[in-house]
C-alpha cells in the first residue's frame, strides 16, 4: 500500500472528474496528477533524495494537497508544520527532522524568513502563496513550469511516509513516524466503516497540517471523490462551500461544530445544505447539548465519532451514525468513543499490560496495521509506548460487554482544547521559567467553548507576587498561544502524594466531579 495509489487509480478511472477545487481554481484528476508529478520532479531537482524530509507551513489550499502527494511521489517524507506553534517550536520540528526544503504561503512568509536565518538544515524556501514571490524564495508555479514530470518513486509498505509532530510529555514535541501502510490501513478502515461513499465531495475545513483531516480525507481519495478546500475554518465559509460546491462530507472538531450551529449565518438566511450527508467529529470533548443542537440544525446529516491519536494514523475506534439517533441513545452508546474499527484491536489493560474485566477502568491499548513505526530519534519513548505491538495510549477507559469503550481520563495529563493536544508538561515548563514561580501544576478544566481549557495552579515565591495576566503574557513568549493558561489560581501549596508527586486528581476534582463525561 502507498499514499499515491489512490491517485493513480483515480487518474486511470476518472481522469476528467474534478479532483480539487480551491477558490476559482479547479483541477481534474488528470491535471492534478500531472502537477503532482511535476512538483515531485521539481523537488528532486532541488536535491530531494529518497527519504528526505520536506516541510510545509501554510494555510489550507489546493497546493497543500499537491504537496501531500508530490513529496512521496518524488521519494520524500512529509513534515507538515503546525501553524499554531510558536516559531521556536516550528524550528525544533525542522531541526529535529532534518527538513531541508520548506514550502510556505503568504500567511507565514515572515515566519519562514525568520526560520531560515535560525535553521541549520533548511536549504530552500518555496513560496506557494498567490502574491509576488519574495526575494530569496523560489516560486511554486515557476518551479512546476520548469520541471519535467517524474515517475512515482513507489515508496510503500513500511517505508516512512511522514513525520507528524505532536506535543511531548517531557516538554518537547515528538515526531511520530507513520508509514505508507499505517496511513493506508487507517484510511481503508474508515472507508469500510462507510465514511466515504462513492461520488462524494469532501470539504477540507479543519487545518490540513493536522493528521485528523488527512486521515478522514484518506478514504475519499480511495473513492476518487472531489476535494473542496477553504483556507481555514470559518462558519460562513463552511456554509458557503457546502451550498456552492454540494459538499457531502467533512470533518469538524467539536469546537467548530459549536461555532457553526450557533453562528448567526445558520439562521440569518435559508441555506441549501441538503447535499451534506456526514460529519465526522473527534479530537476533543463534545457536550451532549452541543451535539443535540447540531443534530437539530442539520437533521439529515449523519454524525460519526472517531477516536484515536497521531500514533494510530490516526483512527482506532468508530462510534457510527446509528448510535447518534434516538434508538442509539436508548442503547446507551452515545457517550462512547465507539469500538475497534476494521483491522484494529482494542483492549483495556492494567499497568502490566494484562486485560482488565469489562467495566473496569484501565489504559486503552491498540494493536493493528495503524500503529506507528515509532518516535523519530526517540527509541526509549518508542519502547515505552509500543509494547509487543500494542500502542499504549495513556487514555483511561472501560469497555462494555459489546466492545464499546468509554474514555474517562487521561493518564498522560494531556489536555485537548479546541481539537489541539496540549501536554501539561510543556505548559508547566514554560510557567516554571517565570522568576516568581516556586511550583506549578497544569490541568484541563471543562469549557463549553473549547471542550477543555488550560488551567494553571501555582505557588509564588515569598515576596514575589505574580498576576494571572503577567503569567499568561510570559507563557506566550515561550509557547503557542493556544497552549497558554486561560485561567490561573494561586495557592499556598500543591497537594502531594507520599512520593512527592503532585496529586492532579485532587486539583481536577472540583471542576469535574459533577460531570458524567470527563473527555471524548
- What characteristic shape results from the CA principal axes? globular
DSSP, total strands: 27
- Briefly note the CATH topology name of the domain at 414-512: GMP Synthetase, Chain A, domain 3
Gyration radius, in Å: 23 Å
Widest sheet: strand order?
2-1-11-10-12-13-14-15-16
CATH superfamily of the domain at 414-512: ANL, C-terminal domain
- What is the makeup of the main sheet? 9 strands, mixed
Determine the structural class based on helices, strands and strand pairing.
Answer: alpha/beta
Average pLDDT taken over every residue? 92
Distance separating the two termini? 31 Å
Tally of separate helices: 17
Can you summarize this structure?
This protein is α/β, with parallel strands linked by helices and 520 residues long. The protein is 32% helix and 26% strand.
How are the SSEs ordered, and which strands pair?
Blueprint lengths: L4 H9 L4 E5 L2 E4 H17 L7 E5 L4 H12 L3 E4 L6 H11 L3 E4 L4 H10 L5 E4 L10 E2 H7 L13 E7 L7 E6 H13 L8 E4 L6 H13 L2 E4 L5 H11 L3 E3 L2 H9 L2 H4 L9 E5 L5 H10 L4 E7 L6 E5 L6 H5 L8 E2 L4 E5 L12 E6 L6 E2 L3 H7 E2 L2 E10 L5 E6 L3 E4 L2 E4 H9 L4 E11 L3 E10 L7 H9 L10 E4 L13 H9 L8
Parallel strand pairs: 1-11, 3-4, 3-5, 5-6, 6-7, 10-11, 10-12, 12-13, 13-14, 26-27
Antiparallel strand pairs: 1-2, 8-9, 9-19, 14-15, 15-16, 17-18, 18-21, 20-21, 21-22, 23-24, 25-26
Amino acid at each position: 500500500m502507498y499514499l499515491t495509489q489512490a491517485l493513480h487509480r483515480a487518474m486511470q478511472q476518472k481522469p476528467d472528474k474534478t479532483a480539487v477545487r480551491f477558490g476559482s481554481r479547479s483541477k481534474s484528476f488528470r491535471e492534478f496528477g500531472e502537477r503532482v508529478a511535476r512538483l515531485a520532479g521539481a523537488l528532486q531537482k532541488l536535491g530531494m533524495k529518497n527519504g528526505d524530509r520536506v516541510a510545509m507551513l501554510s494555510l489550507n489550499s489546493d497546493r497543500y494537497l499537491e504537496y501531500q502527494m508530490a513529496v512521496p511521489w518524488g521519494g520524500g517524507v512529509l513534515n507538515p508544520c503546525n501553524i499554531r506553534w510558536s516559531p521556536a517550536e516550528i524550528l525544533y520540528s525542522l531541526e529535529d527532522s532534518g527538513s531541508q526544503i520548506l514550502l510556505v504561503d503568504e500567511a507565514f512568509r515572515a515566519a519562514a524568513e525568520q526560520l531560515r536565518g535560525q535553521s541549520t538544515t533548511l536549504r530552500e524556501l518555496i513560496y506557494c502563496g498567490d502574491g509576488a514571490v519574495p526575494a530569496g524564495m523560489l516560486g511554486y508555479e515557476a518551479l512546476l513550469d520548469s520541471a519535467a514530470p517524474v515517475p512515482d518513486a513507489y515508496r510503500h509498505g513500511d517505508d516512512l511516509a511522514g513525520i507528524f509532530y505532536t506535543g511531548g510529555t517531557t516538554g518537547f514535541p515528538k515526531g511520530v513516524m507513520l508509514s505508507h501502510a499505517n496511513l493506508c490501513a487507517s484510511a481503508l478502515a474508515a472507508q469500510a466503516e462507510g465514511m466515504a461513499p462513492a461520488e462524494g465531495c469532501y470539504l477540507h475545513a479543519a487545518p490540513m497540517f493536522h493528521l485528523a483531516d488527512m486521515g478522514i480525507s484518506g478514504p475519499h481519495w480511495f473513492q476518487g471523490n472531489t476535494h473542496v478546500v477553504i483556507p481555514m475554518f470559518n462558519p460562513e465559509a463552511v456554509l458557503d462551500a457546502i451550498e456552492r460546491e454540494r459538499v457531502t462530507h467533512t470533518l469538524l472538531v467539536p469546537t467548530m461544530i459549536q461555532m457553526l450551529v450557533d453562528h448567526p449565518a445558520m439562521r440569518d438566511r435559508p441555506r441549501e445544505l441538503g447535499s451534506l450527508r456526514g460529519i465526522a467529529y473527534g479530537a476533543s470533548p463534545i457536550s451532549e447539548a452541543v451535539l443535540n443542537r447540531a443534530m437539530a440544525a442539520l437533521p439529515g446529516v449523519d454524525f460519526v465519532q472517531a477516536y484515536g491519536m497521531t500514533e494510530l494514523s490516526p483512527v482506532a475506534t468508530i462510534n457510527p451514525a446509528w448510535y447518534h439517533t434516538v434508538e442509539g441513545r436508548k442503547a446507551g452508546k452515545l457517550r462512547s468513543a465507539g469500538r475497534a474499527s476494521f483491522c484494529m484491536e482494542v483492549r483495556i489493560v492494567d499497568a502490566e499490560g494484562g486485560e482488565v474485566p469489562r467495566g473496569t477502568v484501565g489504559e486503552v491499548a491498540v494493536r493493528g496495521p495503524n500503529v506507528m513505526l515509532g518516535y523519530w530519534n526517540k527509541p526509549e519513548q518508542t519502547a515505552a509506548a509500543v509494547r509487543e505491538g500494542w500502542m499504549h495510549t495513556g487514555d483511561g477507559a472501560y469497555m462494555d460487554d459489546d466492545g464499546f469503550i468509554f474514555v474517562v481520563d487521561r493518564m498522560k495529563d494531556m489536555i485537548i482544547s479546541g481539537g489541539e493536544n496540549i501536554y501539561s508538561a510543556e505548559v508547566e515548563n514554560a510557567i516554571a521559567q517565570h522568576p516568581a514561580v516556586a511550583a506549578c501544576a497544569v490541568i484541563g478544566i471543562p469549557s463549553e467553548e473549547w471542550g477543555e481549557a488550560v488551567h494553571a495552579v501555582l505557588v509564588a515565591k515569598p515576596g514575589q507576587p505574580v498576576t494571572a495576566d503577567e503569567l499568561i503574557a510570559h507563557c506566550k513568549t515561550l509557547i503557542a498561544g493556544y497552549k497558554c493558561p486561560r485561567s490561573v489560581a494561586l495557592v499556598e501549596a500543591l497537594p502531594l502524594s507520599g512520593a512527592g508527586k503532585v496529586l492532579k486528581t485532587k486539583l481536577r476534582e472540583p471542576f469535574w466531579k459533577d460531570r458524567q463525561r470527563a473527555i471524548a
